[in-house]
Amino acid sequence: xxxxxxxxxxxxxxxxxxxxxxxxxxxxxxxxxxxxxxxxxxxxxxxxxxxxxxxxxxxxxxxxxxxxxx
Length: 70
What we know:
Number of helices: 3
Order of helices and strands: EHHEEH
Helix content: 40-55%
Largest sheet: 3 strands, antiparallel
Strand content: 15-25%
Distance between the termini: 21 Å
Number of strands: 3
Shape: globular
Radius of gyration: 12 Å
Strand order of the largest sheet: 1-3-2
């Protein structure tokens, strides 16, 4: 079970990775394959391609992908 604040509307891929236990590589692959999340291009960020996930996307990711063991 994943617990989050109801006021939070979007989650970064780093937050989703920490909440679900899924590594960023698998999370990005799942997002591309299942058309989840939104690719946000942020000029100031270290990684210019950052995925943003809604609360619904977070629930789907948590259900579809098991925790990474590596």
